[in-house]
Design a protein that fits this description.
Elements (H helix, E strand, L loop, with lengths): L5 H4 L7 H21 L17 H23 L6 H31 L1
Helix pairs in contact: 3-4
Length: 115
Amino acid sequence: MSRVKFSDLIPLPQLTGEAMLGIAEEIAREKKAWRAKMSVPDGIVIPERPIPEDDEALLDEYRTAAKEMSALLKIRTSAKCPDGQEGAALDTWYIRVMNWRFRLQVALRDRIKGK
């Protein structure tokens, strides 16, 4: 009996950077609408790190974020991973690092296109 791959059952789309940016912009518009409905137009302000100006520093930050995402994913998928609030905190941290890495990726792409 041959094994069936998950990707054969559900085709996964390959998104370009521009498509991912479009999705991020759509999410931002939805958040803005929900904040307006809840009478908190600015939402919770979370300070974001600035994108490094130096190309080498930008690439180093991107690599560091990739390593951190990998480490968090290993922890989260291990049998010893905590449940409850600790597990949820790891999920939240993973999403935050993923968002940072995506911002760095977009900056890298823009710099490459600009050169």
